[in-house]
Amino acid sequence: MLRRVTLDALKYHISKAGTLIRLSVRRRGFWLRILLCWAIGTMALSNDKGSNFDQRFQLRGDQKASEQIILINLKQSDLSSVYRKRTNSISNLSELTDITDSFFWNKEIWHRLLKTILEQQPQAIGVTLYFGINIGQVQTSDSEAKVFQDPRVIWSTSTNNFERLYEPVFTNDKQNNIASNDLRRDEDGVIRHIFNQSESLPHLAEKITRKSFPISPNGLNINYRGTARVFTQYSLSEILDGEIPPEAFHNKIILIGAETSSGNQYLTPLGPLSRSEVLAQITDDLLGHKWIRVWNFSIYALLFLGLTLFAVFIITQYPQSVALVFMLWLALSIAAISAWVFDTFYLWIPAYSPFVLLLATWIIFIGYQANRIERLNFRLQQEQKYLSELEQLKNNFVSLISHDLKTPIAKIQAIVDRLMTQHAIPELQEDLRSLRRSGEELNRYIQSILKVLRVESRDFKVHKEVADINEVIEEALAQLLPLAAEKEIQIQPNLEPMFSAEFDTTLIKEVVVNLLENAIKYTPRRGQIQILSSETDDAIFVQVKDNGEGIQPEDLTNVWGKFTRGKDQELRSKGSGLGLYLVKYFIELHGGKVDLTSKIGSGTTVSFTLPLSDDTTSAATEGKV
């Protein structure tokens, strides 16, 4: 038994899978378009790193940087007097073009500078300049050596093309006060990445922060917080002259750099920066773990597939105008979210390639939708043609049957009339009168159906003529007085004299007859019916009021429908359900309005208005229905 259930479940799943495969094959054009849009998006994605976030840095401007980092930038003017003492070959300092790190070395100045900083107990001091064989032998006293070899002072090292290490002059025995100031440029000469260093020689940013770079084989993306202005800076003269706050360097990371001509300017996404300024950016990223993170390409491709499916859903499920607005909103939202995530969480989310993806999806699927709509319109036209022919066939059939029924009904009524005059037996007379009434009721049904077919035909027109509405009402009253007399119902007309108006007398008479006939039908024996007419400045007003049982509230909205009757009247009285439908139809053809109010136990009031102005009804009277 269990094996049979398992086989049945397996067959069911195979059947479902087969159905899905058949549907997919049948709509392969649709799915191929989706794959094409996705392929365009992923191709744009592969080129969307756009100079590796350069524009992102430039657009967002300066960001808040760590207050723990302080820059000290030495200027040429700070040591110009010292340089003049060392050489007499240059008369004007402005002519000096080969300014190297050694230009900024002066033992006395550096001793005073480092001593002043160390007195405020900084966390670390990073000297970004290389002072090694380029400054020759340096003789220092014990007090000077103590300052220069303080473990908080980290000296930069340099390597040549053969990766030979040049140690700084003040390297201690353990070599734990030196670090690399290596900055690698990309192919276009811009510094965008920082790479892991060897364990034996850490990077200067690692040494002064006591943190290590995360392992990244392709390098870490530097998150430039802005230009050098984002960091606190002091000049040499401010420090030596005691113009800085007493606790300015306490527990801070100090980076000392200078304006040199040997690699003095490093190209960055934010423009040229000095070596110390670039190292400050790297140090800030390392302190706050602010590296720009980039997901694997497959993750972005998967997200693009979801975006493609969502865009296709919007385009295919909503009107073009709505879809276009939503697509623009979606593109702008992605751009805004991308900028916010980049600035807040340091995560790169592409903005250009999603726009390309959405644009390609819009172009491709708008064409697809246009082709699909064209096919649907053609199919709809064929169906409309078929339905029109079917409707015409139905109307012809009903009209033929109705006309064929009129002749035998007329014969039956003639025979009944003859029998009523020939035989005076009371019982037979009562049966003949009942048969006569049934024949008349059937004849009215047939006439109602014929009227509906006539007014719904394509060549039906309203024929207006000048007439008096009161005369039309009186003719309708004369026609229905015998019917009211059978139920001993009193009809009280209250017709105000008024000028003649232009309307279709046949249709308006049919409206009044239907309203009075309904009132008589649903008014109890010995009841009363009032019919009123009056005239305003721009309309004729007619009202028919009875004191019948009224209409249920839930039926008030349905009484104007074709072949519709109140639920409580289905078995209590006979009718076709076409009377009020024709009333509303004829009045609206004249540009008028119909109103119905009813209260259970108090009766029903139906009224209509006909406009007197010709321009309100010209379209209805001259056009086809």
> How many domains make up the coordinates?
3
- Per DSSP E runs of 2 or more residues, the count of β-strands stands at 18
What is the helix fraction of residues, given as a range? 40-55%
Structural class: alpha/beta
- Largest sheet, strands/sense/barrel: 7 strands, mixed
The helix tally amounts to 17
Strand % is: 5-15%
| Termini separation | 67 Å
Shape: rod-shaped
Can you put this structure into words, describing what you see?
The protein has 625 residues and is of the alpha/beta class. The protein folds into 3 domains: 31-52 and 295-377; 54-288, no CATH class; 460-622, 2-Layer Sandwich (Heat Shock Protein 90). The protein is 49% helix and 14% strand. It is built from 17 helices and 18 strands. The strands form 5 sheets. Strands 1, 2, 3, 4, 5, 8 and 9 form a 7-stranded mixed sheet that branches. Helix 2 (28-46) packs across helix 10 (297-317). The longest helix has 71 residues, at 352-422. It starts with a helix and ends with a helix.
In short:
The protein is 49% helix and 14% strand. It is α/β, with parallel strands linked by helices. The protein has three domains: 31-52 and 295-377; 54-288, no CATH class; 460-622, 2-Layer Sandwich (Heat Shock Protein 90).
List keywords for this structure.
625 residues; alpha/beta; Heat Shock Protein 90; seven-stranded mixed beta sheet; disordered C terminus
